[in-house]
Design goal:
alpha+beta; about 55% helix; globular; 12 strands; Protein Transport Mog1p, Chain A
């Protein structure tokens, strides 16, 4: 089955107006400095005026929720249901509310592409942070952020890759603002190590409040996006970064492995027999590739950050599905393909370690013959089958009466 072409949808502005408040003299000066610094470092001219508004904590949190809804609220809720059906998020998780809460506690300033303004909370006095946010405003004026982000059909992996480009570019400007010429003398390995250390502290501080999938994808946008953008900037300056916005990365794998973006290595298209599922009474509720970074985030619910990183490497393509059948029965199906059989085996082992961590019971003795293996797990009235076959891994989770048939359909 051929995937539908991606299309950009118009986004209707439905947000209530922001309060009108004059900026203090200090904030006016900071805004002027950030406008000048972001334009100079990013080598882009301002086309129009960019506003800046101070909000209370409650106003900021409310706006974060409104922005999350406008940037794909329905898709995020569907993704939350899919992940819950797969057993990796608690039932009833609302990723829109969770994401808005995450933004509210993790940032004191943000650029709203819907309002075309910088939103402030907590009276920030950080010039580098404002320079970061004004870089987003420059991106929006030159490359239209909403057109990059609001693309259908929804693809979690592609969306995270675009977020990594957007945040990586702004973080790159911020770091050069902070460090000057010294930043350009750092190796890419040093830059990656520096960002990893900074975000490791961040992970320790708020990681206990949010699921690993949300934490890892958020950190990915900044940590890996910064290194990716700097690698491209060193090849061709700011115009090479402009080209990234004109030809954005297609997958998180291309962000994590710059050579794959440069060689044009696209993710492999993965689908199950959707018509077969439909004729068996299953309706698709949502489906999306999770990508290399999604695999990392999901695995971190049960294995270490390093183990998840190794297990996700070698990803070639995937697609996760949530199906609904009679009387609301839910079925989770996740099919992935890997560069080598060894990569598939490493992911298969890590996924089973995740199941053990979640205290699932291995109800059937695992079968294993060369590059073929299967495990069966039971928990909370659900059965999960994980099947390895050469370079492919299929995971099915649902009621016992449904999983065997679903596995056969997914193998076609």
């Amino acid at each position: 089955m051929t995937a539908a072409p991606a299309t950009t949808l118009p986004v209707e502005r439905t947000l209530p107006p922001l309060p009108v408040r004059p900026l203090s003299p200090q904030l006016r000066e900071m805004r002027a400095r950030a406008l000048a610094a972001s334009s100079r470092l990013r080598e882009l001219d301002w086309k129009t005026e960019v506003g800046m508004t101070e909000l209370s904590g409650w106003e900021y949190g409310s706006r974060a929720g409104e922005m999350a809804q406008s940037l794909g609220g329905d898709e995020l809720r569907a993704l939350g249901r899919l992940a819950a059906a797969g057993g990796v998020l608690p039932e009833g998780t609302d990723l829109v509310s969770l994401g808005a809460s995450f933004l509210a506690v993790s940032a004191s300033a943000t650029y709203s592409p819907l309002d075309k303004q910088i939103l402030l909370v907590d009276k920030t006095n950080d010039d580098s942070l404002l320079t970061h946010e004004f870089t987003h405003a420059l991106q929006d004026q030159h490359f239209e952020l909403m057109k990059l982000l609001v693309v259908r059909p929804y693809n979690f992996d592609r969306t995270e890759a675009v977020f990594a480009l957007i945040e990586g570019d702004a973080m790159n400007v911020q770091r050069r603002f902070e460090e000057g010429d010294a930043y350009g003398r750092r190796s890419l390995e040093e830059i990656n190590r520096q960002e990893t250390e900074r975000f490791s502290r961040y992970r320790a501080e708020i990681g206990k409040w949010f699921p690993p999938l949300l934490i890892e994808t958020f950190i990915f946008r900044y940590r890996d996006g910064t290194r990716f953008v700097e690698a491209m900037r060193r090849r061709g300056g700011e115009r090479a970064v402009d080209e990234l916005f004109l030809h954005p990365p297609q997958s998180s794998e291309q962000i994590l492995h710059t050579e794959k973006y440069l060689s044009g290595e696209a993710p492999r298209e993965v689908r199950v027999d959707e018509a077969g599922f439909a004729s068996s009474g299953w309706r698709i509720i949502s489906s999306t590739p999770m990508g290399e970074i999604g695999v990392r985030g999901l695995l971190q619910a049960g294995v270490s950050e390093e183990e998840a990183r190794r297990a996700a490497a070698g990803w070639g393509g995937d697609r996760a599905y949530l199906f609904e059948g009679e009387r609301g029965a839910q079925l989770f199906v996740w099919k992935s393909v890997w560069d080598r059989s060894e990569d598939a085996q490493e992911f298969f082992r890590a996924y089973n370690a995740l199941q053990q961590r979640r205290k699932a019971t291995q109800s059937v003795k695992p079968s294993n013959s060369g590059n073929e293996a299967q495990t069966v797990w039971r928990e909370d009235g659900r059965v999960t089958i994980a099947q390895l076959s050469n370079e492919s891994v299929i995971i099915v989770r649902g009621l016992e009466s449904n999983v065997d048939g679903a596995l056969e359909l997914a193998r076609r």
